[in-house]
Automatic annotation (TrEMBL):
SMART domains: Elp3. Keywords: Iron, Iron-sulfur, Metal-binding. It comes from the Bacteria. Residues 73-298 form the Elp3/MiaA/NifB-like radical SAM core domain. The keyword Nucleotide-binding does not apply. The keyword Iron applies. Pfam families: Radical_SAM. This is PA0069 family radical SAM protein.
Length: 363
């Protein structure tokens, strides 16, 4: 484990208790015993339940393009930066470094909300050079994290896409998506929408420390069922697969997904880029000290001897014997359950550009 990472007791409802320094910081800070109990006071304050702070941002643009061969979509939209779910393994944590915030506790307590996302989206879709292709929502941070209940930014984005008959897909681990079935259902039945629910584990106690503010596993399966009953093509994303932690559950998750009405299964292995590695290592030693070394040995085996290898083609699924075994287990479980690993293409041809502001209609 990284000896430079500050030690702290777990905070209930948070993935990590430390504000790890980000990789762009020029100054390193360390505690100093001044004889007045300052170190004890700092430790006590760190254990207090930190409130979630929302930082409102007026984004200049919201649709990002993607050309990675590992990702099956060309456009994405994330209404939020940072995520209150607090998943310790989240590969998006390092993005908070660009905001001069910690990928640790700040990532899950200081949430940037793109309050004008719907407005910007409509402007971008109205551009003459815009060519419609499926927009993937929530690929970095969850579009239905708890603050969405109040801010309803994702809801506004979906309203724009619905009016324009634009194809979209969503990935989430929140049951909050059920609120928007009135928008998602009609689009899905018209062949323009698809949803993936991430299910990391079926074990409630594990989920509480692995992804503390995400929906409980059984509740996510209820959401899979609700989406399926509403006619929405729904897949389950078994991700990330962590050796000796949730990896033994692969077959049970696939079976439960099929019973709930999922049509497809997808997966990724654990990825530990940049600051995620020391954060995950500390979490592992706190919660599973007896198997920490075995877990990291297998993770490194799948990433070419490193905590993370960012090469296209292998970063999502890993490489080597362990990665091959996981792929085989997924394929066999999917076959037994009568599911698929693929998703039918969405209808991108129905798109109708929004009217320019102030422009009337002739009809």
């Amino acid at each position: 484990m990284n000896d430079k990472l500050p030690q702290a007791s777990p905070i209930k409802g948070r993935g990590t208790a430390v504000r790890i320094a980000h990789r762009f910081e020029r100054d390193l800070r360390a505690g100093f015993d001044d004889g007045w109990g300052t170190l004890d006071q700092d430790a006590q304050e760190e254990r207090l339940l930190p409130a979630t702070t929302v930082i409102e941002e007026r984004a200049k643009s919201v649709v990002a393009s993607n050309d990675s061969p590992d990702i099956p979509f060309g456009q994405s939209l994330n209404p939020y930066r940072g995520c209150e779910h607090g998943c310790i393994y989240c590969y998006a944590r390092p993005t908070h470094s660009y905001l001069n915030l910690s990928p640790g506790l700040d990532f899950e307590t200081k949430i940037v909300a793109k309050i004008n996302a719907a407005e910007r989206l409509e402007e971008e879709l109205a551009r003459p050079k815009y060519r419609a292709s499926t927009i993937h929502i929530g690929g970095a941070t969850d579009a239905y994290q708890p603050i969405e209940r109040r801010l309803r930014i994702t809801r506004g984005v979906l309203e724009v896409l619905a009016r324009c008959e634009h194809a979209f897909s969503i990935v989430t681990k929140s049951s909050g998506i059920e609120r928007d079935l009135d928008l998602i259902g009609p689009a899905a039945r018209a062949g323009r929408a698809w949803v993936s629910i991430s299910v990391t584990t079926l074990d409630g106690p594990l989920a509480r420390v692995l992804e503390p503010r995400a929906a409980a596993p059984h509740r996510r399966m209820q959401t899979v069922a609700a989406l399926a009953q509403a006619g929405v093509p729904v897949g389950v994303n078994v991700a990330p697969i962590i050796p000796f932690i949730n990896e033994p559950e692969i077959e049970r998750i696939v079976e439960s997904a099929a019973q709930a009405g999922a049509k497809s299964i997808h997966y990724t292995v654990l990825r530990l880029p940049w600051e995620v590695s020391p954060l995950f290592r500390q979490w592992l030693h706190q919660h599973f000290p007896e198997r920490a070394e075995r877990v990291m040995a297998r993770v490194q085996e799948m990433h070419g001897g490193q905590d993370y290898k960012a090469d296209f083609g292998s970063r999502m699924k890993g490489e080597g014997v362990w990665a091959q075994l996981i792929a085989q287990r997924i394929d066999k479980a999917v076959g037994r359950a009568g599911l698929t690993r693929h998703v039918a293409p969405l209808d991108e041809g129905a798109f109708r550009p929004p009217q320019q502001a102030g422009q009337g209609s002739l009809f």
